[in-house]
Design a protein that fits this description.
heterodimer, B: 80 residues
């Protein structure tokens, strides 16, 4: 989401809250703070604080898993992208998520779960030793805490743009509330709030597509109106326009979507980003751990209804006061012309259909999304800091009680660093783009390292470390090359002179993953592998995977994964 | 056992989901009724469908069901 541009918009707010809206917002804050105090008594050990006692059911872990990625930054950004690029934005919710989530549940979760690791860097330590763990833990801790600050600033900017709230007020209210409930309840608090947020997002946003489709006269009429308004039917096809870079509004080729997004970026994010994997590690048994990502995938498939459909509806129904069609524009143009920016599409649609009360519910959903994003980042940070950095390198032999105290303190300190990041971004907003890019440096190579570690016995400690290091370095190199070399450099990375900036991430991920895999394989063949006995519980072929306890077909995770896969394929065919 | 909130606690995560949505239903329903029957509907698109009222009804039913279904019962506490 281009918040830089949103931040630059004119000071005029979009709407204001009525007393009934404020009641709804205050109710939310009261409930989340109550939950923090309520669960504090149940977070006395490190396993309770960092892994919610490993007692979450598949439904809770699954909803939390999908909700951790359903932040307001994503919702508003992708609604804006749907307006800008049409239904192609749905790829980030379907092929860019579902196959990876199912793969995590069926193939990878058994190893994460039975190795009893507390984190993804923790798995790397078991499989590849301290070098790979240290590299991934340090980069992850830095990135999550910076992202928490970006979320904080994003919330403040949205609240300023939509409601005219003071930026400092929003930053501190959000930060203090999140710090209190995560410090008190750890991951348990964060998970409960994520489940609440998931329900709130639907309660607050589902009316937009419902009323929008009524106004547009149904899906078929909506497609016809969009085609008439933009002069092309490309905006409502998922795949048929991806044969060439020039044939679609996004300037991307199907190979980028399938291999870059669907193959690498999404697998990297959904299977190795500890922020989401931590939710599944809290499951109460192996079957729940396998089912949680599958349940998450089922709900993920429905999210375009509240994100993509509003963006598409805006192309058809959003009007100016004089009845003419409203044209949203990029943020920098909006600043100059006084028009609305792409990223404002969700608030604009909310205001279009929702009066007092419903507006409060929608705003509360956005606030909940931002706060849950901060909580997710800060709880993952405190776990990786305490287990994989402090406990691994600074104080190895402290008591469990000491690590819990460190978890609570690192939550508070993490929030303070986030606040500093938020102010830093506020004063130099281009930093935000770099922070958001930083994640992409590590995710694709990390997936290469983890997947080889799980599936290939021959991968060695040295191979894992140098593969991860080379992949990350190449990703940073390609990023710098494109950002200094302009369109010509982009054409080299994406293999086409017609490629648009959106394609860069996908091809960069693909190349950095390939480099990671090649280096890991090459170095592994030059070094000595571990024995099967040493790899027990960590790698396919060296591990007897225990039964998940399913006796009937209805209890088998693989059955439900097939059901989700069939629906996923059907949806792609329907909207082809 | 109360799901999600920790061993031995009486309040399940689903109870919180119920209470929160029921609270919102209880706020929206009378406000929507006042707006509809008192002629105070906000000038939003499709306000003739009275979305605040009907959304309030839906949230009240949903929240009421979850609140009742997962309400704390005697004997739920201190189970491990």
């Amino acid at each position: 989401m281009n918040l830089q541009a949103l931040a630059l918009l004119s000071g005029t707010q979009l709407t204001h809250l009525a007393p009934v809206d404020i009641i709804i917002l205050l109710l939310y804050f009261a409930v989340v703070l109550f939950i923090g105090f309520y669960v504090k008594g149940q977070t006395n050990t490190s396993e309770e604080f960092f892994l919610a006692g490993r007692e979450m059911t598949a439904w809770i872990a699954g909803l939390s898993f999908v909700s951790a990625n359903l932040g307001s930054l994503e919702l508003m950004g992708w609604a804006g992208s749907a307006y800008q690029y049409g239904i192609l934005a749905t790829h980030w919710y379907w092929i860019g998520a579902i196959p990876a989530m199912l793969f995590l549940g069926i193939v990878m979760m058994p190893f994460y779960y039975i190795s009893k690791t507390h984190s993804v860097p923790g798995y790397l330590q078991l499989r590849f030793g301290e070098g790979a763990r240290g590299l991934s833990a340090a980069s992850f801790a830095l990135m999550t805490i910076l992202m928490s600050g970006v979320n904080m600033y994003a919330m403040a900017v949205v609240m300023q743009t939509v409601l005219g709230w003071n930026i400092t007020f929003s930053i501190w209210v959000g930060a203090v509330t999140v710090a209190i409930y995560v410090m008190l309840g750890g991951l348990r608090s964060a998970i409960i709030n994520e489940v609440l947020q998931f329900v709130l997002i639907w309660a607050g946003a589902a009316l937009i597509p419902i009323l929008g489709l009524i106004e547009a006269g149904g899906w078929t009429n909506l497609k016809a109106q969009i085609a008439a308004n933009v002069g092309s039917s490309d905006y409502t096809h998922l795949w048929s326009t991806l044969g060439t870079f020039k044939g679609n509004p996004m300037g991307i080729h199907w190979t980028g979507i399938v291999f870059g997004l669907g193959g690498i970026i999404s697998f990297g994010y959904w299977t190795t980003d500890f922020l989401v994997v931590q939710r599944v590690l809290s499951a109460n048994n192996l079957r729940s751990a396998k089912m949680a990502p599958i349940i998450g995938a089922a709900f993920k498939m429905a999210v375009p209804l509240i994100v993509i459909v509003p963006g598409l509806l805006a192309l058809a129904v959003l009007k100016n006061a004089d009845g003419s069609l409203m044209h949203l524009v990029p943020g920098d143009i909006a600043k100059a012309t006084g028009q609305h920016a792409y990223d404002e599409v969700l608030p604009l649609m909310l205001i279009r259909y929702c009066g007092p009360g419903l507006l409060g519910l929608g705003i509360t959903a956005l606030v909940a999304g931002f706060m849950s994003g901060m909580a997710g980042n800060v709880s993952a940070f405190s776990t990786v800091w305490t287990y994989d950095l402090y406990g691994a390198y600074i104080n190895k032999k402290a008591s469990d009680k000491h690590y819990v105290a460190m978890g609570r303190w690192s939550t508070v300190i993490g929030m303070l660093i986030s606040i500093m990041t938020a102010y830093l971004v506020a004063h130099a907003s281009s930093i935000m783009d770099y922070v958001q890019s930083l994640f992409s440096f590590f995710i694709a190579p990390l997936f290469g390292t983890v997947i080889l570690g799980m599936l290939w016995k021959r991968a060695t400690k040295e191979g894992g470390f140098w593969g991860l290091f080379a992949g990350t370095l190449s990703s940073i190199g390609m990023f710098a090359y494109v950002h200094t070399g302009g369109k010509a450099a982009l054409a080299h990375i994406a293999l086409s002179p017609d490629a648009q900036p959106m394609a860069e991430n996908m091809y960069r991920a693909l190349w950095s993953w390939i480099i990671c895999v090649l280096v890991t394989v090459a170095v592994s063949y030059m070094t000595t592998a571990k024995t099967d006995a040493e790899l027990n519980g960590l790698v396919y072929g060296a591990t007897v995977i225990p039964s998940d306890g399913a006796t009937t077909i209805w209890q088998k995770p693989v059955f439900w994964a097939c059901v989700v896969a069939v629906v996923f394929i059907a949806l792609n065919i329907i909207f082809f | 056992m109360a799901e999600g909130t920790g061993r031995g606690d009486a309040l399940s995560i689903w109870f919180f989901v119920g209470v929160m949505t029921l609270s919102y239903g209880i706020v929206l329903l009378p406000y929507g009724a006042w707006a509809w029957f008192g002629g105070h509907e906000a000038p939003t698109v499709l306000n003739n469908l009275h979305p605040t009222f009907w959304w309030g009804v839906l949230l009240t039913i949903f929240g009421g069901f979850y609140t009742l279904r997962f309400r704390p019962r005697s004997g739920d506490t201190n189970k491990v």
